[in-house]
Amino acid sequence: MRRLCEHLIGQGVNGLTPLGSTGECAYLSIEDRCKVVQAVVDASNGRVPVVPGVFSRSVKGAIDQARAVQRLGADGMVLTLDSYFPLSQTAVRDYFLRVADAADLPIIIYTNPNFQKVDLGIDLIVELSRHPRMAGIKDASGKTGRLLSLSMQCREGFGIYAASAHIGVNVMLLGGVGLFAGPACVLTPENVRLYELCQAMRWDEAMALQKILWRFSEAFASYNLAACVKAALEHDGFTPGNPIAPQPRLADEAKQTIWKILDEVRMEARTYLDSVIGGVAS
After folding, report:
1. CB-based contacts of 186: which residues, under 8 Å, 6+ apart?
2. CB-side exposure of 116: number of CA atoms within 13 Å?
3. Pick from 123, 30, 115, 124: nearest CA to 68
4. Does a structural domain hold residue 128?
5. Average of pLDDT values for 208-213?
């Protein structure tokens, strides 16, 4: 983990977010989550912000995790509400506000209707954005109308981040400030360039690059998310191991497919960037 973080920082990422979906947070014990955060904080050594995921079904569990990552030196958190029973918007509001009041860290709210039984409505997000510790939202809804409403109604300075690698350009075009991208663990310079193209408002070029990178993400539809990224990291000389059981491990044939796609996407992206990179910070 430390070696991967060193590599990512060297490739120009603006921050590190352990314990997301790609990092298999939902499968890790609290002790293991703390080990991961400590390793990433140590590796970063203050060079880039470390904003780990905090993931719980209970207020107490979330507060305990939030205080733990604060003690370990995290710079913020990406706060997720898991759910077993259905919850009202009032209960969801209570979860986020009580965690915000209990730990002295900036919070990125995470909403992902694909994995969560409970989603946050626009009105609730706008209300939460007014809390001084709510720094932004990582939204995986893919609904551009929702994102546009949030960008217009949330308090000034409340950042909107893309949660999916394939809509980073769209989100930033609508006023977003960045993206959290699991594939950036292996397509790192390409995603950094994507962000820089958006910052330079070179939207056509950024979208063309996003389309190239999407081919790697398409593999996730056929294989397990963590397994794909771990296979790609293995291709790059890291030793990430297998997905945590009961997630299936990739067969050797599937790994070969992932590696072939990764190599082809890198080559195509490099060729494209060589033709447009002039004027973009490196």
Report:
1. 216, 229, 232, 233, 235, 236, 262
2. 20
3. 30
4. yes
5. 96
107: β partners: 77, 134
Structure tokens at 204: 């056509």
Using alpha carbons, select from 179, 95, 87 the residue that is nearest to residue 142: 179
* CATH at residue 132: 3.20.20.70
The C-alpha atoms of residue 187 and residue 213 are separated, in whole angstroms, by 8
Answer yes or no: is 196 within a domain.
Answer: no
Pair (218, 175) in one structural domain: no
Residue-number span of the structural domain to which 211 is assigned: 201-282
For residues 11 and 118, membership in a common domain is answered with yes
Residues 69, 174: Cα–Cα separation, whole Å:
32
pLDDT (tens digit, 9 = 90+) per residue, 151-181?
999 999 999 999 877 889 999 999 999 999 8
Per-residue pLDDT of 43-93, as tens digits, reads 999 999 999 999 999 999 999 999 999 999 999 999 999 988 989 999 999
Clarify whether residues 249 and 141 are in a common domain: no
Give the residue numbers marked as catalytic.
110, 138
How many structural domains compose the chain? 2
pLDDT band for position 186 (50/70/90)? very high
